[in-house]
UniProtKB/TrEMBL annotation:
Keywords: Membrane, Transmembrane, Transmembrane helix. GO terms for cellular component: membrane. It comes from the Bacteria. PANTHER family: SENSOR HISTIDINE KINASE YPDA. This is Signal transduction histidine kinase internal region domain-containing protein. Residues 183-261 form the Signal transduction histidine kinase internal region domain. The chain crosses the membrane at residues 22-45, 51-73, 85-105, 125-150.
Amino acid sequence: MLRDGVDIKMTKNRPIRQWKQAAFYHLLVWAVFISYELLCLFTTVGLDGQYLHYGIYYVMYISLFYLNAHVILDFSFFKTKSPYLIAAGLIVVEMIVFGLLKAVIDGLLAGADAPWLSLKVFTRAYLLSNIFRQIFFIGFSIAYWSMLYLTRFRDQAQQMEIERLRQQASMLELENRYISVENAYLQHQVSPHLLFNSLNFIYYAVYKLSDRAGKGIMLLSNLLRYSLTAGSAQQKTIELKQEVEQIRNLIGLDRMRFNEKRYLGFKSNGELSGRFILPLALLTLVENVIKHGECGDPSAPATAELQLRGNKLHFSTVNKKREKTAYSTTGLGLNNLRKRLQNAYPDRFELQVNDEQDQFAVHLSIDL
């Protein structure tokens, strides 16, 4: 059935398809995560427990993940007037209740008559291991909820803005305003990559209780804050030295993920102060190198170089191609970047891509 040129049946089925697709991706991510953990345990200390026990523990922690996101955080931020304070208090209560429940289940699985008394739950090792395990899942739950929240409301705001502009503005005004909304939307597509590329490292650092975790989380926090604030529709340009600082943060975070066995060099020449650039433009190119390039070969290190000559900015990346990559090479990131550059610097930029058999190189020139 058609109404105003729209298939109503297809429109109604779209949320169902989206829900099924989201459920599939959630199941896939958890399957990969659990397989990775069990593989690490098997190769290090061995799997000495029963599979049923592992299943019970993963069901508990996955339930904690979704309970924190869809109950605690949704309630605190959508139904209260002091969301941060209430969320913090509820999370503390949640951790205490979960810890006690975990102690009881540990005792039951151990076959104790009085499980909540038989376990040495107040020993330092037991408490720390359980607390940090909870912090790990709650932390990722907060990151998941934040991305879900930002994505939902940013998309709604952008779609409403686009529709309002189409109906009320003149063709010239519509074109200028639409460019700002499109830029924000394209930057929004770039931002989540920064988080997902670092999830594996954060898990490893927190799980091992390493001092590196603090530094890694701080770098990731800076990157997320920068990508979200710089990606707003009002923020059309950013100071060049801030973009360069985040490039160094991204490279540093990548090196920490691989125990410094990464060979990606970055250098800049020229005065950065007082210069402004399209947000995330240079960061996207460096991220592309990390995602798809071979940065672990000391004989063929990847490079990124920034040069300022008057008002002319030159930025280039060169990397050896990786034989196998976990990411599909769709070219979406470079295509989005080209659109944003065209909107921001019409006829004032040049983006050259040299895709050879063993090497990938990109050169960007902008007249600032």
